Amino acid sequence: MTHPIRITIWNEYWHETNQPDIRAVYPDGIHTAIADGIASDDFEIRSATFYDPDFGLTDDVLASTDVLFWWGHVVHKEIPDELVTRIQKRILDGMGLVVLHSGHHSKLFGRMMGTSCNLSWREHEGGERERVWVVDPAHPIAKGLPESIVVPQSEMYGEPFDIPQPDHLVFVSWVEGGEVFRSGCCYHRGRGRIFYFSPGHESFPIYFQPEIRQVLANAARWCATPHEDGTRMVNRHRPEPLEPIGKLEATK
To answer: Is 106:46 a contact under the CB 8 Å cutoff?
Structure first.
C-alpha cells in the first residue's frame, strides 16, 4: 500500500449523546476511544457518526476508506438501505469491514452474512467477567496477544449465533454464566475482508483495555492487507482449483 491505512470509524453515537451514564464512560464517544487506542504511524483515522450529514459516509469518504469500523445498536433501522448498498459494493470491491459488538444486528452485517445474525444475550448491572480465548494464535489478528484476554465487565453474548461458518475463527469467549461464544470471526466477501468482534458493550470501558485495542489495530491491518505491489488483497486464502490428473480407473 502506497499510503497509510485509511480507517473510518463509524459510531452511531446515540448512547453517549442521550445517556449521561454512558457519556461518563465514553465522554468523547466510543469512536474517539477506539481511534486513540489504535493510533499508529501507519494509520490515517477519521470518525463519522449517525448525526453527521449523510451519516458521515458520503461516496468520497467511502472511496477513500480502506477499512470501515462499525459500532451500532439502537439506530440500525434508521440506516437507509441505499447507504447499506453503497457500503456493500465498496466491501465487495476491496474495502475492509470491522463490525463491533451489537453491530451484529446492523443492516450491513446482516447483508454481508445473509442470515439473521441472532444470538443469545444477557445483561445485568455490573456486567459479567468474560475470558476471550485465542483459538488461532497464528492468525495475524492474534499477533502480540496473550493466550486469553480477561474483560472484567461485559455483556453476555452466547450461542447459538446465526452466522455462516467463519472462514477463520480467531477468538472464542467464555462468560461467568458458563456460556461460550464465537467472539472473533473472519470472512471474505468478494475482494473485501470482514472481522466481527463482540466485546465492546457501551456501559463498560472495554475499548480502553490495551489488549482489546491491540485486537482492533491488528484487525485493521488484516482487513487492509495489500499485495506486495501495493494493490488490494484478493482472497488469498481461496484454494486454487486442482489440475485434472486423468480418468480414474474403477476399483473392485
So the answer is: no
State the Cα–Cα distance between residues 239 and 182, nearest whole angstrom.
Answer: 24
User: Tell me: the pLDDT tens digits for 112-158?
Assistant: 999 999 999 997 778 999 999 999 999 999 999 999 999 999 999 99
Q: How far is CA 213 from CA 144, 177, 199, 220, in A?
A: 11, 25, 11, 11
Average pLDDT, the chain: 90
Residue type, 21: D
Residue tagged 441505499 (cell numbers): 82
Q: How many domains does the chain have?
A: 1
CB 85 within 8 Å of CB 24: no
Peptide bond into 160 cis (omega under 30): yes
Q: How far is residue 191's CA from residue 75's CA, in Å, rounded to a whole number?
A: 28
The dihedral through the CA atoms of 205, 208, 214, 219 has a sign that is positive
As a whole number of Å, the CA-based R_g of the chain is: 19
Amino acid residing at 197: F
43, 220 Cβ separation under 8 angstroms: yes
- Considering the domain boundaries, does residue 79 fall inside one? yes
Q: Look up the domain containing 216 and give its range.
A: 5-118+182-223
